[in-house]
TrEMBL record:
Periplasmic binding protein domain boundaries: 60-317
Signal sequence segment: none
GO molecular function terms listed in the Swiss-Prot or TrEMBL record: carbohydrate binding
Family: Belongs to the bacterial solute-binding protein 2 family.
InterPro entries for this protein: Peripla_BP_I (IPR028082), SBP_2_dom (IPR025997), TAT_signal (IPR006311)
Bias type Low complexity, positions: 33-47
Localization: Cell envelope
Keyword annotations of the record: Signal
Keyword Ubl conjugation among record annotations: no
One GO cellular component, as annotated: cell envelope
Protein name according to UniProt: Sugar ABC transporter substrate-binding protein
Pfam families, sorted: Peripla_BP_4
Region named Disordered: 30-60
Classification of source organism: Bacteria, Bacillati, Actinomycetota, Actinomycetes, Streptosporangiales
Amino acid sequence: MPENGPLGRRGFLLGGAVVGAGALATACTSNEPPAASKPAASQAPAAGSDNDKPGKQVTIGFSAPAADHGWIAAIAKNAQAEAGRYSDVTFRPVEPTNDINQQISAVESLIQQKVNVLVLLPNDGEQLNQVARRAMDAGIPVVNLDRVFPDKLSYRTWIGGDNYGMGVAAGHYIGKKLKDKGVSNPVIVEIQGIATLPLTQDRSKGFADALKSYGFGVTAKQDAKFTVQTGNEVAGNLLQAHKKIDALWNHDDDQGVGVLAAIKQAGRNEFFMVGGAGSANAMREIKAGGVLECTVTYSPTMASSAIRLARLIAQGKGMGDLVENQVPQSITLASETITKENVDAYLPLGFES
């Protein structure tokens, strides 16, 4: 997932656990020990889904980059759809843009409008840090989505994906399969997004660490800039350079459209491929059978979860499945492994490349 323009992505998958909106935990504790006659269960939070019931009216401001690829498009779509589920939410998005200064101006306009809470996926966390801080200083809680601000005073809650975990999931799938097949000294190829981004470096480190546990390493890697065209070119070059490949991990399913096209054009099928992010296109390829066997998630459903969290924060509520009375400060979503065996369960969450 990139950080600026085509750099966008990914931060997470809604792994069932995080982020459902459940009931506010109603139990409280006191300094007095519970009476012996009372069952321990009486101290447990009440179950239920009261958080979904209409509450205080809130206005949620929203800003994200322009939709120059499928994942970012799904971010905006998911946020708007989730806000529409609640009669007590007014959703106020600003024009999406890949221009840093324009996004800063757009966020400033939301501050001036005095929205109750702001959901912000910055083009660049470093460069938008100060405007997010201004929102917080103005009493507007910021839900920082995916690309994190360096200053924790600039956001109330961060929610995003696990880039290192993506690499670990891909590495374990590839490592185990090759080990089970008895392959020694495998040729493992890695196609990154943008090599200079911290998120890409985290993914590559997770991948290398997981492969190391099987005694394997990456033979060759090259970045493809998160674009279909570059994915096609890079995959073509790697296929020419390596006449035999055992496994390939492509970090991003959007650029994976180009990677798969290059593989098909070359007529290569001696290896298997793992994707990244969880696009519907990749899931359909997995379901059909072929070189793409698996993808590891970094789902844009995180935007839906960010809207839920923003609503709860603005209404002074907590997450129903937690004991605490307030929404957590940081939520990292799990990277899940999608294969032919479980793809039907994930297809509804896929985004179009």
